[in-house]
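I hope you will forgive my troubling you with a question about protein structure. I set the record out below, with my sincere thanks for your time.
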Amino acid sequence: MKPNLQYFSLLFLLCVKPGIAGPRIDCLPEPSGNQTVCESRGCIWNPVDNDIDGAPWCYFKDGVGYNLASQIGSTYNLRKNNGPRNPWGAEFENIQLRTSTIGASVLNVKIGIDGRYEPPVDFPRETISTPETLSFTTASSDDLFWFSVIRNSSNRKIFDTSLGGLIFSDQFLQLSTYLPSENVYGWGENAHQSLKHNFSRYLTWGMLARDQPPNSGNLDTMNLYGVHPFYMCLEPDGNAHGVFIFNSNPQEVTTAPGPSLIYRTIGGNLDIYFFPGPTPALVTQQYLAFIGKPFLPAYWALGYQLSRYGYNGLDEMKQRVGAVRDAGIPLDIAVADIDYMNRYKDFSTNDNWSGFEDYVKQMHGWNMKMIPIFDPAVEADYLPFQRAMSMGAKFIEWDDYSQVQQDIQKLYPMAKDTKIMLGVVWPDHHVGFPDFLDSTGKTQAWWRDELELYHSKLTFDGIWIDMNEPANFGTNELHPWYFDDNDHPNDAPLFCPTNGSNQWDLPPFQTHAVYYYGGNQNNAYLSSKTLCLTGVQNNGTYRFYDVKNLYGLTEAIQTQAALMDVTGKRGAVVSRSTFPSAGRYAGHWLGDNTARWEDLRTSVIGAQEFNLFGIPYVGSDVCGFLGQSNEELCLRWQQMGAFHSFFRNHNTLGEPAQDPAVWPSVASATKTANLFRYQYLPYLFSLHFQASQNGLTVVRPVFFEYPSDTETFDLGYQFMWGPRILVAPVLHQGAVTTNLYLPNDVWYSLFDYKYGSQIDAGYITVPSPITYRIPVFVRGGSAVPRQTPTTTTTMSRHNSFELLVAPCQMGRAVGVLYWDDGQKIVDSFDTHDFHQFNFNFNSTSSGAQLTISRTRMGTVALPTMDIIEIFNYPSPPNFRSFTLNGSTVNINVQSSTYSGITKILYISTKNLIDLTSSDVISLNYNNLKILRKNEAEFHWSHIVEYEELRTAVEKLPDGYGVMLLNRHAVKMTLNWLCNTKSFVGVHQKMLFLVMDKFSEESLRNVYARLNIVIWLAPVLQKTFRPYDTTYMSFFLMRTNMIHALQKLGKPFWMLQADTIWRDNFFNSLDTNQFQGIDILLDQQGYDGTANIRKRTMNGANFYVPVKSSSQSLVESWLSWQKSVYITDPDLVKMFCLRGDYLCEYIPYSLVAGWEWIYGDQTNPPVMIQMDGETGGNKEKVLEKYNFWFLDKNDRCKPDKVSRGVIQMGEGSVPRVMTQSKNREQFWLKLGEILNQIPVFGHYSSIYGGFTSLYLQFF
């Protein structure tokens, strides 16, 4: 027996402050109501002087509801009380309330009458175990029964119907409740301008599937394409719960002060499910276990999609796809809207698209895919309709023959003697709507056969289903819009029985979906833009009035089954109309939005909401569908959309093209954003795998991870990409900075601003110019799988895996990778062929260990993991100490780096880790051992010269730092160290060895004992020249620049244009080595051009600094090379013939020329100009770049150093330039500055290469 809470309820009432009224329950939502009508309903008329909160003027009196007649176990028999009556139909005198549990935690409260309509949706009705439980309690007072749902662990009421207002009539059902908190999320589908609902005012949201584009320009509560009666609530203590009302009739919900909500529907029962959580993630898992977990999209479906409505023909599609591909933008999918059809008829191709299949085959050869659109409606005089009739397929029908519009029906012999309800959509003639609830299965078989037949003509890979609310043009309109459209005949519109008292098309209560539009007097009906609700499906078993909201779901179910059957692969289906459980079968896009900033913002919120609804494969029409987009808006939308699972640029008929190739700036930003997305596709795919397997979200609100942080509760314009990555898109016009909030945790930057550096939590402002990626942060404690990106997902899948490690404060990180073949159908995860790897990273002061555990072994081939990038790694590693499961690993020290400034460790070695080699893989390494002063056997002043290096090295303890110098650099090095006070503690940490000439054999024998080697003398060129031409080769190994250029996704070489070196090495290269790559030459005024030209005529691109006097050389190169980039001492503007890099005037130097590419492209952190290369234009340079000059007389002036450090600390990083011929002095000053500030970028030159590595080392 449940406890009776009457005593507690009375105590509560006594404690309520007098004069504070409860929320008003609207008694007159119909337009043009007045006091007379209100009072005739027995309701209270009380106009509000200040209508800010939207309170209804006409509202129910207290006492509406039922009383408890009897109780038998968990069944409560309720009887209509003596309170106010329902104005929209007589209440049932007797109803039942039953409670039950699913598992031990999910509570079901069902109010209704046996035998009433139940939605025909096949939910799994499973649950996720949790220690949290809920209790159902009842109470009554003054002839009014109510109930509460209580969380047992906290004794908090999460649902409290003491507000009253329970109404249960045939076509009007109402339930109202107090809520424990205003932190409520969900209900849909609507365009919400904030993630959290607003309970400071009364807002009614319609829920009826309708062909209605969202209006994000202002607050708009109209119903859109789908129906999702589910919400999540965060309670004051951070616990979360979810509530799902299983009802498919037209419905609405009002959020009101209290906080409270009033739910209304016009059919079925009140079938309510409570999910206790207690975390937001568990709520979602419990809800999706009940309604069904989302499908796993094909891997390629996570690629970028290009679409538009309004292609003139196949040639225009080719042009736009080609333009995007030519811009180097990763692109996977071309999408065809109804343009490709013959007069907009399904399963047809028009003449302007002749050769479409050949182009699809060509795209398949590029590893691209194609998705066409299919609408559900089929023209009634068309072969597919004829085949449907012959197979016994069913269509939505009129209830009886007397309702059939014979003037329409007689036009179509195949439908003449049927009850098929004919409507109007895109095709020229009337259409029928397939009945996907057909219990005979014949309709479903016909739909599958039509898709198979068309697939034999056009080998599509996925399917886009649209207009499936279902949409119908011109319903109940004398003059529909298409009467004025030259591309559509004046077909007679569909008219529903709205001029009488038809209970289905004119129910007593017509919901916000009608009243919002002005009601019947404004020609607004439930049937507007759709079919007549008096229609029936499945031979009259179901009334369209009841199942209309299920149409998109039922079509998605059959379309997914057909796609998999026809292609033999899982592919992907995207549907406009959705209902709970639709995520099992299809994804969703947020509809026909508008190209404006408001819609960009609501798209961010919409994607989060649909993840709550169990549809993680979701996104928006990037750049906006309706209206003309613009450069800045499209750029920012592309950047944001790159983080949504469904990522498609799409716009409408009659508007200019808006694909990213239209604007160079958008193309550049999209390429950057897409390469980032494609690099992190293994992580994104793993998120989808977890969503499909365990019911998790992909894009999720920040509060999901931080439910106790109140600052996250309404942080709708930021979102989490799984549990590891936070995204704060730029959503306002003209913004060059972003204000955002980072919860209390460890965070690292994943974008251009301080990449890899730890960022303070709290409210911060970060730079966000259009040349940056949008602000992205990785959470401490994360090990995130990545992959070297290319221009398609299929090609990227063949590249090596990478792992980003972002440690927590304890130096630890965890992560997971799921991997299958990307296309096989998942019948069951128990039998599905996939790999699962868990990553566990742990570092200490002496070293680190990465453990990779294979918890599921598949048969799918895997690339090796070749790159590991570790943020905030405090000590330099000993690259020669690496072991893999106990065996020594030879780390490629040319491509692997450590920066003591950024604290980023980058490990890059080909075939580093074979993930299939063992169930448990352990990569271990030690840090370099730094001897303290009292341990040191050698002092920094022990600068010695040996004829044989072996002798010196053998005297060193293991792990001791070694720097090899040639004599030319000795004096400079000593001056630098002696004059740099910040290096006092370093003097005991490094042994310097001076060398002149050593044999190749001697160096090779001792090379394994060295910790760090600096190439500074030409004598070492031959000895250490790499023979693997995958890497750039010259005697300054600019490893950091290799890494930087590799990030750009471009193959390249960097060549030192030294005559001796060129003769010794260049002549021996295979000329095919340079096919289609870039060559960077970093010295001015060399000869031997003919030799280079002779050996690289086959398509290399030269990037060469030249003097003004060498312009003729450049002109000659331009005549046969693809492109040349030029810098010269007079700040000649860089040519950007291919648009690979941004154009900018920069002063040339060995450092500046290439560090500009690596650093902040529009605002380099540090530019270095040497040897008077300003060409006498010192004042111009100073004016343009605000350089801080270090002149030759500027010897160790503390005031200048201090001023520079202060400027840098304040965020105003000066550029550094010298006119001095004294390189020693230059590097002395530069080294002093760089050692004291974190600077993004690395520095090296022919005499300063050791500076870079020395700074990295410490």
Q: What stands out?
A: The chain has a mean pLDDT of 79. The CA atoms of residues 409 and 416 lie 5 Å apart. The chain has 29 helices and 60 strands. Residues 551-567 form the longest helix (17 residues).
